[in-house]
Amino acid sequence: MDADRRPPRPPHPLTDQTLAVLAGGYAWLPSRMRESGGPAVRTRLMGKPALAVRGPDAVRFFYDERNVRRHGAIPGPVRATLFGHGAVHTLDGTAHRARKKLFLPLLQADRVAGVVEEVGAAWDEAVAGWARSPRTVLFDEAAVVLTRGAHRWAGVPLADAETEEAARDLIAMVDGFATPGPRHWRARRARGRQEERLARLVCEARSGRAPAAPGSLLERVAEHRDATGEPLPPGTAAVELLNIVRPTVAVSWFVAFAAHALHRRPELRDRLREGDTEFATAFAHEVRRFYPFAPFLGGLAVRDLSWHGQSVPEGGMVILDVYGQNHDTDLWGDPYAFRPQRFLEHPAERDELIPQGGGDPRSGHRCPGEGVTLGLLETLAIRLARLRYDVPEQDLRIPLRRVPARPRSGFVITGVRAPEHRGRPAAAAVGTSPGR
Q1: Nearest 5°: phi and psi at 35?
Q2: Which residue blocks in 208-267 are alpha helix, DSSP H?
Q3: Who wins on pLDDT, 377 or 363?
Q4: Distance separating alpha carbons of residues 28 and 41, to the nearest angstrom
Q5: Tens-place pLDDT, residues 224-266
Q6: Which of helix, strand or coil describes residue 388?
Q7: Binning pLDDT at 50, 70 and 90, where does residue 78 land?
Q8: What is the dihedral sign for C-alpha 59, 79, 248, 22?
Q9: How far is residue 411's CA from residue 140's CA, in Å, rounded to a whole number?
Q10: What are the structural domains of the chain?
């Protein structure tokens, strides 16, 4: 074979791949996995040896605290933007379990139904404004709707005049977590503003100057005591309040992706319009599986580890290939076809479908708000299918080098008309786990 036609050699496992990750985005790790021909590959990231793994067994391996810990694993820039310093995501063992109790209400069906109802009402209020506007960027407007509904649900005061700024800040925290440059610094400034606002509310709730509503998530965070028996410092309480509200607002990405899917597959609208909750659940699962959100998750090896013949020393990184697993032919058959019916034929298994991580959300590091995401996406997908609008010419490409990815245009709609009235989308469709 002529030299200039030879396929490129895979990088040596000792070559640091940090810059390659930034350049390759979601495609980087699946590409490395294809080169390895197996469910594991050695590499190097941020100066550390790393072992990347994929598959349901790998999920269980990754979330076993005897193998992998999260403390110290999340890079400083991600802590400073997405999660916040001292967040539950950075803890392990007893400290993690004690802090995780804060988030257990997110697993309760009535709490999930509550946020779905509040966000649904905020969406219905917003539609009238969209109808009067010549142009609506769905991603941006969904963020405002979700911010308003999430604050009402959590019992966190937010004036109408502050809602758009809060929505921009919450989106910026997610949008800037995985990139250097202006997006990252916007995210840091946004987090600083929102932590200051929420820390002030926590202090006011504790002092009685502005008591939290009884039973609200604000009250729960303000009164929570950690494994030490001490209340959370106001700054840490603000971090954890943001870790309830921010992921809710991040559903804006999935709303834009749902609109993208319905534009590409308009025949899917009919079952959603009819309020078919079983199909809405399947549609929500498929949006989260098909479209890119988290490329991978990382932790640190508790001890010298080996997986399928590939090893990593104690203190090295272990990486779970989230995007690659959600597009694995062995699991999904036709992973690059958007086909909600797959989840009607085969229920979503906990450690197969991992758009928000794997493992047990009650005790492990899987996102406890996954049921909230599902419930919101189900009800908003139905509302979106019932909404009448036009889709003008725009750039709907979703670049996989950008993390987190989204349609470049944000999904612009025009000519919004009143939705078709076929009854209110049922909040009873909500659940607490992928396999519900």
Answers
A1: -65, -35
A2: 217-223, 234-249, 251-264
A3: 377
A4: 12
A5: 998 889 999 999 999 999 999 999 999 999 999 999 999 999 9
A6: strand
A7: confident
A8: negative
A9: 9
A10: 94-297+327-429 (1.10.630.10)
